[in-house]
């Protein structure tokens, strides 16, 4: 990071001057800590606040930034009142009263991604979407490595973006959430994609259109727009005169699927790249993820051979269509990362045979009736659990799909085992968030794996 150039950019783009800015970092998680360390390195004075009495990283913040004022146990309104800039962590809603009052008084909201954008000169590949973004982000990173590019990968996945500045990189691949994008104004990506749009985070957004608008921000000034032609909401984001690459698993596109001599291939126009059977991931929707990753890599000039090698060697991510075991002829798949309806639908549609589905949790305000058609088409039985599991059951009333209620994951796995027959797949794809019963989706997935591996062989 060139300190002088970064300070110049921060001043011109965000109005951040070390001598005059009064910065309040809101949120003391991983992102907040990365922001504090970044500002400290550049000589800014700032304070940190968190509504929790003892945030998870409080000790680290106190140790690494001992001279920084820290306010915990509720938002200190005096701190917000004097702030000229709020760097708000993605996990916090901008509708918090203290934040709204500060903005009304003239404070400017910025995010860690804007700070990052001012500090880098290397190309950025930016990836968002309701589903698949972690898989595509990781896959693009592996493609870059296979192509001999020194790459750093992070953002919403893994390391916070500002932590990537400590790595020597010739390219950055960032997964970005709608919460990160809604407070981003200066990001310019060399290539960017919105993979798909489905109902998610409707507890934070007024409606699906508002959620999609925040996702669309990723295309602001992007060099190449990578568009999913199978998603009408994403397809509508195309802009005339912009450099664009398209992908589809349903029809013609720049990157698409096609039969060649009886074998289905991932294609670039008329060029076969890789047999679909060589993609080592569960579910047909992962073919779309591979095509999106190839389109992004192609936009940055990656060699096709390197990209194909990376796809063939890609083992997938934990809790994302992760094949856990095969027990008595039944395959068990952990898709705990499916925290919304779209992710569950994509997982179900990837199967030719009907599955036993385990679903439920915190629906985050989504309408579970939208999940019913995919379940009816692709599930032979459903085991529901969690706070909003009964909403799934209600949506299936009269559908003919058997619904079984479980109190916890161990019980859900046992009930699914009793329902499944040799040749079946039991799929954990909750269509809901996990925080009603678990620490996070990872904890939920680990509980599933533990219960599965505890079944009698």
Could you characterize the architecture of this molecule?
- By secondary structure, this protein is of the alpha/beta class.
- It folds into three domains: 108 residues, Rossmann fold (3-Layer(aba) Sandwich); 199 residues, Mur-like, catalytic domain (UDP-N-acetylmuramoyl-L-alanine:D-glutamate ligase, 3-Layer(aba) Sandwich), CATH 3.40.1190; 132 residues, Mur ligase, C-terminal domain (Protein-Tyrosine Phosphatase, Chain A).
- Helix content is 34%, strand content 20%.
- It contains 17 helices and 20 strands.
- The strands form four sheets. Strands 7-8-6-9-10-11 form a six-stranded parallel beta sheet. Strands 15-16-20-17-18-19 form a six-stranded mixed beta sheet, sandwiched between helices.
- Helix 1 packs across helix 6 and helix 7 crosses helix 11.
Sheet-strand content, in percent, reads 15-25%
Largest sheet: 6 strands, parallel
* CATH fold group of the largest domain: UDP-N-acetylmuramoyl-L-alanine:D-glutamate ligase
Indicate the CATH architecture of the largest domain: 3-Layer(aba) Sandwich
Per CATH, the class of the largest domain reads Alpha Beta
Widest beta sheet: strand line-up: 7-8-6-9-10-11
Query: How many helical stretches?
Result: 17
Shape: globular
Uncertain parts: none
Q: Span from first to last CA? A: 54 Å
The SS-based structural class is alpha/beta
Question: What is the count of structural domains?
Answer: 3
Radius of gyration: 23 Å
CATH superfamily of the largest domain: Mur-like, catalytic domain
In helices, the fraction of residues equals 25-40%
Name the average pLDDT: 93
DSSP E strands, number: 20
């Amino acid at each position: 990071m060139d300190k002088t150039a970064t300070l110049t950019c921060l001043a011109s783009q965000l109005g951040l001057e070390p001598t005059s800015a009064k910065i309040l970092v809101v949120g003391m998680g991983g992102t907040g800590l990365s922001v504090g360390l970044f500002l400290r390195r550049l000589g800014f004075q700032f304070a940190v606040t968190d509504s929790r009495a003892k945030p998870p990283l409080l000790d680290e913040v106190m140790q690494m930034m001992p001279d920084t004022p820290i306010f915990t146990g509720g938002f200190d309104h005096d701190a917000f009142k004097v702030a000229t800039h709020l760097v708000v962590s993605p996990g916090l809603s901008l509708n918090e009263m203290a934040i709204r009052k500060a903005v009304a008084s003239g404070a400017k909201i910025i995010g860690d991604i804007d700070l990052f954008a001012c500090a880098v000169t290397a190309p950025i590949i930016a990836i968002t979407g309701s589903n698949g973004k972690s898989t595509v982000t990781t896959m693009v990173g592996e493609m870059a490595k296979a192509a001999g590019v020194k790459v750093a990968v992070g953002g919403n996945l893994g390391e916070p973006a500002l932590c990537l500045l400590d790595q020597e990189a010739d390219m950055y691949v960032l997964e970005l959430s709608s919460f990160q994008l809604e407070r981003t104004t200066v990001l310019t990506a060399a290539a960017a994609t919105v993979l798909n749009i489905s109902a998610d985070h409707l507890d934070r957004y007024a409606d699906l259109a508002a959620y999609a608008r925040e996702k669309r921000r990723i295309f602001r000034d992007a060099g190449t727009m990578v568009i999913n032609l199978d998603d009408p909401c994403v397809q509508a984001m195309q802009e005339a005169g912009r450099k664009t690459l398209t992908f589809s698993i349903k029809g013609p596109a720049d990157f698409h699927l096609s039969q060649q001599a009886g074998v289905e291939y991932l294609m670039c126009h008329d060029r076969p790249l890789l047999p679909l059977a060589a993609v080592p991931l569960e579910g047909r929707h992962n073919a779309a993820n591979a095509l999106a990753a190839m389109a992004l890599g192609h936009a940055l000039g990656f060699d096709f051979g390197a990209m194909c090698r990376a796809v063939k060697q890609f083992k997938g991510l934990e809790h994302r269509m992760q094949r856990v075991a095969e027990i008595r002829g039944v395959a068990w798949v952990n898709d705990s990362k499916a925290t919304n309806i779209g992710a569950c639908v994509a997982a179900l549609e990837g199967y030719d045979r009907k599955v036993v589905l385990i679903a439920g949790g915190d629906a985050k305000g989504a309408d579970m009736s939208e999940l019913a058609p995919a379940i009816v088409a692709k599930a032979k039985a459903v085991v529901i659990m969690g706070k909003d599991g009964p909403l799934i059951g209600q949506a299936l009333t009269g559908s003919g799909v058997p619904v079984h209620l479980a109190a916890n994951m161990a019980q859900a796995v046992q009930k699914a085992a009793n329902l499944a027959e040799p040749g079946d797949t039991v799929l954990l794809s909750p269509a809901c968030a996990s925080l009603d019963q678990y620490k996070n989706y990872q904890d939920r997935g680990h509980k599933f794996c533990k219960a599965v591996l505890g079944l009698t062989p």
